[in-house]
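Tip: read the tokens left to right.
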């Protein structure tokens, strides 16, 4: 809704942080005396809140404060709950019985009762709106009448009076009609029984004071007591206040005394509401708001505020702030500390809001205010304002500084000249015409030194013309003949004797700065710079540097002012800093957060406890020792708890099952109606990795993917210049899911391990089976190869044996041939049996070799003898060896060693154990290996090499599947050092299988 402001109201743009969104209005307060005289008074800084700030509606019926400190507003479209920064709005969708809430009432239990036109009771408590829909104790038939007033008895039951003068009782269990009194009940029934019923409203607006049931009560249209009577004032504060048209009464069972009559104060409109605030009285009407400061001290001055505004209610909160609700213009708030300040600008007497200099005459009490456009404003001791215009023919001619001069004259330094103002005659006179005057100072003896853009002048004396750099300020010293000059490129000094100016920065490079102002104080030169803060100089050397690092409000200094009693005031673009000159240290800072109209300060003046500060937004003056400092910490509250997509009502404990990858958030706030944007928060979250307190300006703390466990969140806050509040505690328990329990995790780990073991076992088994199949396959192949090689030996032996039989037949030895064939057949059968086996016993091998040797002896006509030398140890075991591995060696020894020998030969076969191998040597005394090879034909050599190579190959195959290493070695005894012995020794190590 668009706001309407009368002439005294002006929105001050660019005042305070725009993030605050509350608009500030300077009210021109017209002081209306009983005689009808109109004088101008100081302004008040007032905040305005409206729909765009979050208020539910621009029409606000009433305002109350709950037990926690929130301010509640009732409107035609719901209610608004305000913490100083944020509005939380409630309507029917949030549980209200009707959106049109005409009145509110807070009770001692912390509940806020809503009065709606449908007459259905409802209240806010425990973060929820309670109505008949969710609370059976509120079930009630209103019969079309709505509640007017509410009271609370000593048992804290709530009693309502509706428009039908029926009484409704609520005892937390049910809501019922109740008929009290012999002749029915009305509002006076409750007022008469004030010992039982405590009203939940600040005042009662009635049409009459006549109580039919209290004929002895006296009514006083005029108060018999003065307003500064402490007993009478205590009575007013301790009893119900009743408004009848435009009069206000203090009500007791004995009498009703009028203590305010609007017509006596020039108020003809009907009074809608009142507020008793300390010694002040606030009166709201349908057309304006009135403030009578010090009403209860007998003051007769009335101030009219918010002209053409319908005032619907007034509230003084616990901090002393005043809340004003209006019909159609939102809510106005006057911060408590603004009552300690006086404000002047173009809305209440000044030419403009831009101020450059201030001075107050001690003799007359007149306040002089220097402004732009050559305007001098004055306000006398009676607060009467006047304006004087200096010469503006050559430019803007702003009044830059004011200094006491002679008698009643005040020296005025303006852009285009030097003037005097006489406080007695109140006349302005031109003293010296100058172009671009920058600064002026007066020496202890009264010498007036002037610094202009292009010259330095001593009034009624000499001038020094100046080119570069730009002069900004001048300061006289105690010697009366020397002075310092500030420029935009450094510090200079000059003397009357030489009439020359010299650079002072040559002795200290830090003085080569852009200088804004200079002030000589007790042998020290204080230098205010454009961007480096303050330098304290003695003998052209810097002895102290004060900057923002030392708590200076800003390094941009705009003016220096010394109050003569040890304090230097530094006006900056971010407020005023006060420096103890003796200690050369900052004692405090004053800014818009403390109540100034703007942080852009141009000048300061101090006199008799009153501090005057000129800003770009007006003049602010106040008692220097009575600046209110709100050191009470704000109240911290929880607003909401969110876990995942669900929002929960705030509570001291939060318990929930764990949700994977879900954010946990806590939304909170602080109740601070003054400077809410300067509130900062700290939190500590146990089990968090961060140690100590974490500072934040946000009112939401997120904790992403909070793991199961117990946590404790501590929240605290502080506002401007206050301490930290007591922490608000929230216990958080994130319960693990069943699969996150220790036993479930143990089972899962055990099952996992079992699964892994099963898989590993399966893999190992598969690998072993594969290896076994591979080994079996290789073994089978090796056996088949061995058998194949053995079978290769069989035809060779058969061929030789048949040759022998043929030889016997040719020699006509049929009987011997038959015997030979019989033995040969037995040998063949034995050889065929052995060829099917991978291993045969050593006894079977010896028997086979014996039969073979016997046949060979027959074939070679008993030309050799043989002998087996068997180690006795072999008889203790059953030793198995591969078949047909010794026979070829024996055959070679007979055929190629003994057969060619001209005499009888001998063959010895030796068997013994050597390291789990069977050592077998075949020793003959034949012609020898070398001699035998020399007489062999090519075919025989090939045959022998084939036999030996087959034996070696069989030994290698046995190694591949048995792992045992065999050996074959042929030794020519004559060549190998056996003396003169002839013959061949063949040694073979055969892998065996040994069994008991």
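Filled-in amino acids:
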């Amino acid at each position: 809704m668009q706001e309407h402001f009368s002439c005294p109201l002006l929105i001050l743009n660019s005042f305070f942080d725009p993030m605050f969104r509350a608009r500030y209005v300077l009210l021109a307060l017209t002081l209306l005396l009983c005689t009808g005289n109109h004088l101008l008074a100081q302004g008040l800084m007032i905040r305005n809140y409206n729909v765009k700030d979050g208020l539910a509606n621009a029409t606000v019926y009433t305002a109350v404060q709950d037990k926690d400190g929130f301010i509640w507003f009732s409107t035609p479209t719901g209610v608004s709950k305000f913490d100083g920064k944020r509005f939380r709005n409630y309507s029917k969708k949030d549980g209200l019985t009707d959106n049109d809430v005409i009145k509110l009432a807070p009770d001692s239990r912390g509940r806020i009762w809503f009065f709606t036109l449908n007459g259905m009771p409802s209240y806010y408590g425990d973060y929820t709106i309670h109505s008949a829909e969710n609370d059976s104790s509120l079930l009630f038939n209103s019969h079309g009448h709505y509640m007017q007033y509410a009271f609370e008895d000593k048992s804290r039951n709530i009693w309502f009076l509706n428009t039908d003068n029926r009484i409704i009782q609520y005892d937390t269990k049910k809501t019922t009609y109740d008929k009290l009194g012999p002749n029915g009940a009305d509002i006076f029934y409750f007022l008469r029984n004030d010992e039982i019923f405590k009203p939940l409203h600040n005042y009662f607006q009635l049409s009459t004071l006549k109580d039919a049931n209290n004929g002895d009560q006296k009514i006083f249209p005029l108060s018999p007591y003065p307003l500064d009577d402490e007993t009478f004032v205590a009575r007013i504060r301790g009893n119900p206040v009743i408004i009848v048209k435009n009069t206000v009464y203090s009500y007791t069972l004995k009498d009703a005394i009028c203590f305010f009559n609007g017509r006596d104060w020039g108020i003809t409109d009907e009074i809608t509401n009142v507020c008793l605030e300390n010694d002040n009285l606030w009166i709201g009407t349908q057309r304006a708001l009135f403030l009578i400061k010090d009403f209860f001290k007998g003051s007769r001055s009335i101030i009219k505020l918010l002209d053409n505004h319908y005032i619907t209610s007034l509230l003084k909160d616990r901090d002393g702030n005043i809340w004003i609700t209006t019909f159609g213009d939102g809510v106005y708030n006057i911060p408590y500390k603004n009552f300690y300040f006086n404000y002047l600008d173009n809305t209440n007497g000044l030419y403009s809001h831009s101020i450059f200099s201030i001075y107050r005459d001690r003799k007359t009490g007149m306040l002089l205010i220097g402004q732009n456009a050559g305007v001098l404003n004055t306000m006398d001791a009676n607060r009467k304002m006047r304006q004087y215009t200096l010469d503006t023919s050559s430019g803007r001619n702003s009044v830059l500084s004011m200094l006491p001069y002679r008698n009643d004259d005040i020296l005025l330094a303006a852009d285009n000249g030097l003037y005097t103002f006489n406080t007695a005659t109140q006349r302005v006179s031109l003293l010296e015409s100058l172009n671009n005057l920058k600064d002026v100072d007066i020496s202890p003896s009264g010498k007036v030194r002037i610094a202009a853009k292009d010259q330095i002048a001593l009034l009624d004396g000499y001038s020094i013309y100046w080119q570069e750099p730009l002069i900004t300020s001048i300061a006289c010293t105690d010697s009366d003949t020397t002075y310092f000059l500030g420029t935009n490129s450094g510090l200079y000094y000059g003397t009357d004797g030489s009439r020359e100016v010299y650079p002072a920065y040559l002795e200290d490079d830090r003085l080569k700065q852009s200088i804004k102002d200079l002030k000589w104080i007790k042998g020290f030169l204080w230098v205010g710079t454009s961007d480096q803060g303050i330098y304290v100089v003695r003998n052209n050397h810097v002895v102290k540097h004060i900057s923002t690092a030392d708590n200076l409000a800003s390094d941009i200094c705009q003016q220096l002012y010394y109050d003569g009693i040890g304090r230097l005031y530094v006006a900056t673009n971010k407020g005023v800093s006060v420096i103890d000159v003796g200690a050369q240290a900052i004692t405090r800072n004053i800014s818009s957060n403390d109540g100034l109209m703007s942080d852009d300060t141009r000048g300061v003046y101090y006199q008799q406890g009153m501090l005057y500060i000129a800003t770009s937004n007006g003049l602010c003056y106040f008692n220097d020792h009575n600046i209110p400092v709100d050191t009470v910490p704000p109240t911290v509250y929880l607003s909401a708890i969110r876990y995942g997509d669900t929002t929960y009502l705030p509570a001291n404990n939060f318990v929930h099952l764990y949700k994977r990858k879900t954010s946990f958030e806590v939304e909170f706030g602080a109740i601070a109606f003054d400077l809410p944007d300067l509130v900062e928060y700290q939190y500590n979250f146990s089990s968090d990795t961060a140690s100590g307190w974490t500072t934040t300006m946000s009112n939401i703390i997120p904790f992403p993917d909070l793991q199961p466990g117990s946590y404790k969140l501590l929240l605290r806050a502080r506002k401007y210049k206050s301490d930290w509040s007591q922490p608000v505690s929230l216990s958080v328990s994130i319960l693990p899911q069943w699969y996150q329990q220790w036993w479930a995790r143990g089972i899962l780990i055990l099952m996992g391990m079992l699964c892994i073991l099963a898989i590993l076992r399966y893999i190992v088994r598969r690998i072993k089976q594969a290896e076994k199949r591979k080994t079996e396959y290789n073994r089978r192949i090796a056996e088949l190869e061995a058998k194949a090689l053995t079978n290769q030996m069989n035809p060779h032996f058969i061929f030789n044996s048949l040759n022998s039989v043929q030889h016997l037949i040719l020699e006509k030895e049929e009987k011997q041939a038959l015997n030979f064939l019989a033995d040969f057949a037995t040998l063949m059968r034995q050889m065929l049996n052995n060829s099917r086996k991978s291993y045969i016993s050593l006894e079977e091998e010896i028997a086979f070799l014996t039969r073979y040797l016997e046949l060979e002896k027959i074939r070679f006509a008993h030309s050799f003898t043989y002998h087996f030398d068997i180690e006795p140890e072999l008889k203790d075991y059953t030793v198995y060896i591969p078949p047909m591995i010794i026979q070829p060696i024996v055959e070679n020894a007979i055929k190629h060693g003994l057969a060619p020998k001209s005499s009888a030969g001998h063959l010895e076969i030796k068997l013994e154990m050597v390291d789990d191998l069977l050592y077998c040597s075949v020793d003959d005394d034949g012609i020898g290996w070398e001699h035998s090879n020399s007489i062999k034909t090519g075919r025989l050599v090939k045959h022998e090499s084939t036999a030996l190579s087959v034996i070696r190959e069989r030994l290698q195959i046995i190694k591949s599947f048995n792992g045992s290493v065999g050996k074959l070695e042929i030794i020519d005894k004559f060549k190998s050092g056996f003396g003169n012995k002839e013959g061949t020794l063949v040694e073979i190590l055969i892998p065996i299988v040994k069994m008991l």
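The domain at 55-201 is CATH 2.130.10.10 (Methylamine Dehydrogenase; Chain H). Residues 1-24, 28-41 have pLDDT under 50 and may be disordered.
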